Amino acid sequence: MEGRCIPDFPASAPGLHGLSSPRPGPGERPRATSGVRAGFTLLLGCLLALCNIQCQKAAPVDETYYLLSPALIAGLNRPSAPGNLTVDYDLASRSILLQWQASVDPDTGIIWNDYRVYFFLSSPPANIYQDRYRLASTSRTYYSVSSDPFNGTVYFAVTAYESGSESLPSNFAELSL
User: Fold this and answer.
1) Which fold has domain 75-176?
2) SS3 for 170?
3) Distance of CA 36 to the CA centre of its chain
4) Would you list the domain boundaries of the chain?
5) Distances from the Cα of 120 to the Cαs of 54, 87, 149, 170, in angstroms?
């Protein structure tokens, strides 16, 4: 029994009728007969057929399924765009203050309180919804930031955000420093 992983059962033991009659020698594995091979092939074929049937049951989706905007994930409609964005500069505190009108969730009619503030150092790009442009997230309708990192003309926009659904941007406000 030393060095063998196979139990020392006789070839005629119950449940082992697929083993060949000659007992394997030390370090050898028992060989399957054609009956075992055929049974395995039949089992594998059944599993593949079952998998194929299950895979075909899923209704195929058309190309618009993959083109849906994140706006449709959380609710039926995305929040309305925040309105009337204004930007002011306070020279004494060297702060930039942004203020806007609250957004409304069109599904519930409730005033929304999750906003993302974006900034751009040149004219706003076609796609503002990129992390590199996001300055902050806030639950208020105003945001203040130090003007120290900015120089020249800076553009700002605000969006309302709801669990994967982001509104269109507010108006763009600009400030020349």
Assistant:
1) Immunoglobulin-like (2.60.40)
2) coil
3) 45
4) 1-58, 75-176
5) 50, 14, 12, 14
